[in-house]
Amino acid sequence: MRNSLPCYNRVFMFRKVLVANRGEIAIRLIRALREMDIASAAVFSDADRDALHVRMADEALPIGPAASAESYLHVGRILEAARRCGADAIHPGYGFLSENADFAAACEEARVCFIGPPASAIRKLGSKIEARRLAVEAGVPVVPGAGEPLAEAAQARRIAAGLGYPVLLKAAAGGGGKGMRRVDSESDLETSMRDAASEAERSFRSGELYMEKLVEEPRHIEIQILGDGHGNLIHFGERECSLQRRHQKVIEECPSPLMARYPELRYAMGDAALSVARAAGYTNAGTAEFLVDKHLNFYFLEMNTRLQVEHPVTELVTGHDLVHLQVRIASGERLPVSQAEVTWSGSAIECRIYAEDPDTGFLPSPGMIRQLREPSGPGIRLDSGVYQGWNVPLDYDPMLAKLIAWGETREMAAARLRRALAEYVVLGIRSNIPYFRAILADAEFLAGRLHTGFLDNFEQRRSAEIPDAAMARIAALAALRFERDHARRPAAASAPGAGRWASAGRQELLR
Ligand code: MV4
Fold first, then answer.
1. Topology at the third CATH level for domain 144-213
2. How much distance in Å is there from the Cα of 43 to the middle of ligand 1?
3. pTM greater than 0.85
4. CATH architecture of the domain covering 118-142+217-345
5. In testing the pocket of ligand 1, which one of 125, 168, 308 has its CB within 8 Å of the most ligand atoms?
6. Catalytic hit among 306, 352, 410, 416
7. Is residue 306 annotated as part of the catalytic site, yes or no?
8. What residue ranges of the chain are covered by domains with CATH 3.40.50.20?
C-alpha cells in the first residue's frame, strides 16, 4: 500500500483498486475505474473462474472455494489479495463485506482505503435501534414505537397497548424482513415475540427485538446521500422501491411517482436523510430508507451504508456517476458537486433480471446460458454480469443483470423498458423476464399506484386469470418436480386436493 496516510488525508488518486465483489456490480466498478485511469484487480472464487468480471479486470486473484464464507466474505483472504497486488483501496460493492464494520476497520488497520463510510458510522447505523435513536436526536420522524430493546412480555404488552394494534416486531440487527412479525392482538404477542426472536437469533446471532406501530400499505422511498471528508454532505433525491417480493426489490424508479404531485416531499425527506447522516458522522455514499404512509407522513427506518443495487436510476436522472464520486471522495477530494448542482431530469425505471422461474414460485434456475440477446438502444442501460455460454453458479445470488430505461417522462421510460424486455432473450435457464413484461402491462403500475403490498396483490390478480389448462400444466410441473426432488410417493398423496390437479396436469403434459 503506497502511502500510510489515512484515507481523508490523501493527496493522490489511487493507482489500483481491488474490487471485492462479483457479478454485475464488480463489472460496474471495473468500468468506472477504467474511466478514471485506475487499474482494477478482481477477486474470484473457484466457482467464478470463468466469470465475466474476471475477464474484464486488469488482473484477477483467486481467493478460495465457492462458499462465500471461504472467499468473498473472508476478510483475511480479501486483505491478502489487496496486499499481493499492491492495491491502494478496496471497493466492496454491495452485499458480502460492504456493510461489515470490522472489515472496514481491518482495511484502515492494513492501511488500504475502504471505499465507503468510516467503520464507526457503519457500526452506529448497523443497529436499527441505534439508528432510530440517532434519527430521533436529529429531529427526524420515525414510526411511533419503542426506542429500546424489548426485554420481557409484560413490557411489550404495555408498549403495544400504548401504540394500539396492529404493531410490528422487528429485529435490532435486522434486514430483509427476517425476525419481523405483524401482531394484530395481545393474545398473539408472546408467541410472535418468541418466533421473531428465535428467527432473529438464527439469522443474525442476536435475538434483540424492538417494536413499532404497523404502517399499513406504506410506500418504500429512499434518499441517496453522499458526503466527503471535508464536511460537505448532499443528497441526490429519492428512489421508489415499493415493488418487492419477500423483501427482495424487483423494480425501482426515480423519481417516485409521488413526487410529481408533492415535490416538496423530496426536499423534506432529503433534509431528513442529511440530518441522520450528519448525526452519524457519515461520509461517502449511503441511502436513508423511509416509509411513506397514505397521508404522506414519512418515517425514517434505517441507513444502508453502501452503494445500492438500484443506484443507476439516480445516475440516469441526475446525470452524476455515483461510483466516480465515491472513489474521488475516498481518495480525499472534495465533493465536486454542490446541492444546487443536483437536478432531476426525466424518469428512470430498473428491473432486476434474475435466473429464477416465475412458474415455480421463483425458485433459482442456475445453469448454462445457451443463448443470450441483450437489449440496447435509445434510453436503455444494461448492467449485466453474464455472457452467452457461461454457467450461472448456484452458489450465489442469481441476479443476471439490471435493465434500466430512461425517458423524458415515466410513460416514455416504461415504453422503452417494455420494448427492451421484448428484445431480451435468455435461453437455457429460466428468467423473470416474462414476469416483468406482465408488470409493465399492468394498469395499476402504469398509473404509479405503488405500495409494498403491490406485487402480492398483482400476483393474486394474475393467478385468478390463469386458465384451467395453464393451471393444469403448472400443477403437472410441480408434481413432476416434487417426485424428482423427493423421489418418494407422488405429490398427490402429500397435498390434499392436489391429486385432481396433478392428474389433470399429467393428462395435459401427455397431450
Ligand atoms: C415496516 C412496515 C410497516 N410498518 N415498519 C420491511 C423491511 C424493513 N427494512 C422494513 N420493513 C417494513 N417495515 C412499520 N412500522 C412495513 C415494512 C415492509 C416493507 C418495507 C419496505 C418494502 C417492502 C416491505 C414489505 C413488507 C413490509
1. Dna Ligase; domain 1 (3.30.1490)
2. 34
3. yes
4. 2-Layer Sandwich (3.30)
5. 168
6. 306
7. yes
8. 16-115
153-163 and 186-204 helices, crossing angle to 10°: 120
Q: How high is the pLDDT of residue 276?
A: 98
Find the residues whose C-beta lies inside 6 A of ligand 1: 143, 168, 177, 212-215, 218, 220, 244, 247, 291, 301, 452
- What is the CATH code for 346-462? 3.30.470.20
User: 87-130, pLDDT tens digit by residue?
Assistant: 999 999 999 999 999 999 999 999 999 999 999 999 999 989 99
Q: How far is CA 83 from CA 56, 108, 274, 323, in A?
A: 21, 13, 35, 23
Q: State in Å: Cα 437 to ligand 1 middle.
A: 26
Q: What is the pLDDT of residues 316-343, one digit of tens each?
A: 999 999 999 999 999 999 999 999 999 9
Whether 273 has a pLDDT exceeding 70, the answer reads yes
Which comes out higher in pLDDT, residue 359 or 351?
Answer: 351
Arithmetic mean of pLDDT over the chain: 93
Report the C-alpha gap between 355 and 333 in whole angstroms: 39
CATH match of 16-115 with 3.40.50.1240: no
